[in-house]
Structure prediction request, 139 residues.
Amino acid sequence: TETETETDAEKTGTMRSRWSFLIGFTHGVASPSGILSVLPGVVLDDHGKASAYLIAFFVTSTTAMGVFAGVFGAAASLAQERAGRKSRFEKAKASDSDSRVTDAPTKVAMALNLFAGLAAVAIGVVWLVLSSLGKLGDL
Prediction:
């Protein structure tokens, strides 16, 4: 009944959050930046410092990816819940022939992907500029 449906919805939300975190964690571990993370560790002469650096890099990169994926999943879930609350009038008013995206979770996903993509491009541009100016090593 209604209570069982709410429980199923809560379970689905919890599973979605766990999967989002797991996917982010996996991306953090398997990303190409893992290769770059090893390079400073190889250069360090002290094994303790090298190990501390690699562990810190692993923890921060996987945490950042997991948090991003969790926030992404939570925002998409929230948008889906809000979209589900629309009245029948609002749903009937929406035109099926309209080619624009009107699905709230899709809009949220697109906005988050756009933000992440723009941030990645901005970081890449800054990286290239600093490298070309010889200032990257000063950071």
Q: What stands out?
A: The mean pLDDT is 75.
